[in-house]
């Protein structure tokens, strides 16, 4: 991401995305210096909103990488939000925005404050920023992902039902909401409303899909998806023996077993440039292993560094093999009928 740091508050870096700078130039061009000042105040408000989320999130032990400012708004990038703290974390942003908005509006009626002049119209700075903050808070309360309201709705639903179902309902509510917004946007020729509607629609479905994948991956264990048919080689076998096995079984990688113990792994890529007479012992690599009850999430993580993982039982004996191709096939099958399969697996 093309962004650079402008400040660090409460230990959280605040970064500006490059497109944000371009937008500032445009704002200055069309609305002049006063427009630019107003815009900067608006984005300071967005930062405060995100800081409010981040502050509560930090209290719940969430790691906050940074707050990124994009032309469409701010984003606090944090590690996974714990289910328990979600309601408080989500509601903190709108509360701060609305309180700040009310404070600024009241303050403005007491002391007045500077007046900005944009395209011939006067804007009292405090009142305008105050109203924008109230709008920011209320808008974020819309019950649709990725708005805070979507998370609040999910957290409230999750106190009555399981998390996945709560997410599904919140996500459907969000999609209906985005259709309504889209309709308004089209009828009023409002391009910004149309863009926001599409953004919400995308966010709503994304949130649910990501969670479904995560929940399902956690329930699927290595032993459910491993190939239990083990064709192995011995360290003293030659590359020629291995080629013969590959020809016969057409697996692209093999465990190397010595005295019943897994001691290495050898694959097609390891033999392409060596002579037929070389012993497997001289070209084998250390195997990547997982326990039988490792989750699909763990397996996918391990497959980042190897083309296949070996599934070991409690006595450290090889029980099966999972290759990258196996996992890709499993993901395709899950996409087809996720719920049915998950029911069978959790039996
Ligand atoms: Zn928010």
Automatic annotation (TrEMBL):
Belongs to the peptidase M50B family. It comes from Methanofervidicoccus abyssi. The keyword Lyase does not apply. This is Zinc metalloprotease. The active site is at 50. InterPro entries: CBS_dom, CBS_dom_sf, Peptidase_M50, UCP006404_Pept_M50_CBS. Its cofactor is Zn(2+). CDD domains: S2P-M50_SpoIVFB_CBS. Zn(2+) binds at residues 49, 53, 148. Residues 226-283, 284-341 form the CBS domain. It is a multi-pass membrane protein. It is found in: Cell membrane. GO terms for cellular component: plasma membrane.
């Amino acid at each position: 991401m093309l962004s650079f740091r402008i400040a660090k508050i409460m230990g959280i870096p605040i970064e500006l995305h490059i497109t944000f700078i371009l937008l500032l130039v445009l704002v200055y061009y069309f609305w002049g210096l006063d427009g630019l000042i107003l815009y900067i105040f608006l984005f300071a408000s967005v930062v405060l909103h995100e800081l409010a989320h981040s502050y509560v999130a930090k209290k719940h032990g969430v790691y906050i990488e940074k707050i990124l400012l994009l032309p469409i708004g701010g984003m606090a990038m944090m590690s996974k939000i714990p289910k328990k703290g979600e309601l408080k974390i989500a509601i903190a942003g709108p509360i701060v925005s609305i309180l700040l908005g009310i404070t600024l509006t009241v303050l403005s009626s007491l002391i007045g404050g500077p007046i900005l002049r944009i395209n011939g119209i006067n804007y009292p700075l405090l009142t305008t920023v105050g109203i924008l903050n109230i709008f920011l808070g209320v808008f974020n309360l819309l019950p649709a992902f990725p708005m805070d309201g979507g998370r609040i709705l999910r957290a409230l639903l999750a106190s009555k039902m399981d998390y996945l179902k709560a997410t599904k309902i919140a996500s459907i509510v969000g999609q209906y909401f985005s259709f309504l917004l889209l309709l308004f946007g089209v009828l009023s020729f409002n391009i910004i409303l149309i863009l926001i509607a599409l953004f919400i629609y995308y966010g709503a479905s994304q949130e649910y899909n990501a969670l479904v994948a995560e929940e399902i991956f956690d329930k699927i264990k290595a032993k459910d998806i491993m190939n239990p048919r083990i064709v192995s080689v011995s360290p003293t076998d030659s590359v020629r023996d291995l080629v013969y096995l590959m020809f016969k079984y057409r697996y692209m990688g093999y465990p190397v077993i010595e005295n019943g113990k897994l001691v290495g792994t050898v694959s097609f890529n390891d033999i392409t440039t060596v002579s037929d007479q070389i012993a497997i012992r001289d070209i084998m690599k250390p195997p990547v292993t997982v326990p039988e009850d490792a989750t699909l999430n763990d397996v996918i993580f391990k497959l980042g560094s190897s083309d296949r993982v070996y599934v070991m039982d409690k006595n450290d004996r090889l029980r099966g093999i999972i290759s990258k191709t196996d996992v890709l096939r499993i993901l395709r099958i899950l996409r087809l009928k996720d719920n049915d399969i998950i029911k069978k697996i959790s039996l």
